[in-house]
Amino acid sequence: AFLDDFSPRVSGMVLEWHEPRFEDLGGEVVAVAASYDETIRMRDGTESSFGGHMSGVIRRQDGRWRFQHLHWSSPADSTR
Question: pTM (2 decimals)?
Answer without folding.
Answer: 0.72
